[in-house]
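[job 4471] stage=fold_predict status=RUNNING
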Amino acid sequence: MPSKVYSCATRGIDADPVEIEVDLLNGLPRFTVVGLPDAAVQEAKERVRSAIVNSGGKFPQVRKVVNLAPADVRKCGPSFDLPIAVGLLMESEQIPKGKVEKAVFVGELALNGSLRPISGALSCALLAEQSGFEAIFVPQENAKEALLGTSLTVFGVRHLGELIAHLRGEVFIGPATPGMALLNGSSSAPAPLFLRGRPEAIRAMTIAASGSHHALLSGSPGCGKTLIAKQLPKLLPPLSKKEQIELTQIYGAAGLLKSEQPLVTTRPFRAVHHTASVTSLIGGGIPVRPGEITLAHRGVLFLDELTEFPRSVLESLRQPLESRAVTISRSQGSYTFPARFTLISAMNPCPCGFFHDPHKKCICTSRERLKYQKKLSGPFLDRIDLFLNLKPLSYQELYDDNWIPVEPCLDVICLARAIQAKRYKSSVLLNSDLSVRKLSKYCALTNSAEKLLRATMIDYHLSARAYSRLLKVARTIADMQNNDVIHEHHLLEAIQLRLTPLPAPP
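[job 4471] inference complete, writing structure tokens
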């Protein structure tokens, strides 16, 4: 009977189970791998041969057939090196078969038999636990990552020879154990000072951080748009354990984890350059990998110089901004990536940047300004919750030592998020995640607030999306003041931030 070893194939940020069957047949020495392997898996034949020989094993000099099942799913990457080697050694009776029935093997082999780290070790460990396995063998550098969020016995393997001796019972590889600092990591403490001379910006960022609302900052060059956006991560509360595991799985699948710090403990801040492509922003490629919007999950996605982005790139954000996820369809299947990020974007009001600047004259024509602002479509802007026009600071405002402390803002944000966690019975759901059906349940209005909302909808001809986003922002402002019901002044502030127009050409 052919020997069978269990492994995993990463698929986006998730993993699929793979059974590796190895059979030795009579005939000329030949090594065949079937089951839709890519080039990296085909090249495993040479790595496995050298690794077995250099680890003190004997490479079978007969016909060798390796089947990666299910055969209709493409297998990508070098993580199948280790299970193929184990299968060959087991089928040639160099290691006992009963040792691997309840274990999963993943890892890339070097020619000398040592193991190199792989991407997606946490995804493989989570799948192995869900499938009922008891242990997983991974490269030593991936051991701490594989431990996160699972109760599996994780063995970190340095060398194939070490694994062979372990499976023979000659030596014992001790299971990996997590360090307390690794599991209890938290975000770094915020800076004691925030910004100077920008109370309206601080207020807008506090609202954005409290409910994860998207914001667009407009102003002349050097007025502080980028600096304000970079302060937002300091206002976000520390990641929960569930969010840490979620982000670690994403960054592990993307190959961005460091072996010395395998757990993501800080909220991501992804600043994307305006030359980014749709694939790099949304995700895709071969194999399919998460894009910047997924890497910004539970954190901040910052698009500076918004109008310099190609329109096709910005339009690709419309669906993720609404659904908080993105689905990428390819011929081999569909991949769904989470994308619950807070979008903070910045732009100049015109090509020269000084339209409506009180001290500098704009040299752009009305046609140039109109063309410049038309790069942002109405449907895209309709998905933005907060609009903020910034004026340049005067010399006195820059010179005065009027830094505003961040602690009061953090207290307000923590209060609002605690109220939302209690209301939705979840530590990860926020007001911006409310579905249309739940608006009436959780966004109760006073009579005066309801009359104001009706008048605003009629006077400004707002869309249904604008209506729901106004209510969500107002709900966040009410939570920041510990109010169960949305009052008129809560709605007024949301309307002011929502309907603040971008500087338009005359």
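[job 4471] summary: The chain has two domains: 3-178, 193-498.
[job 4471] exit 0
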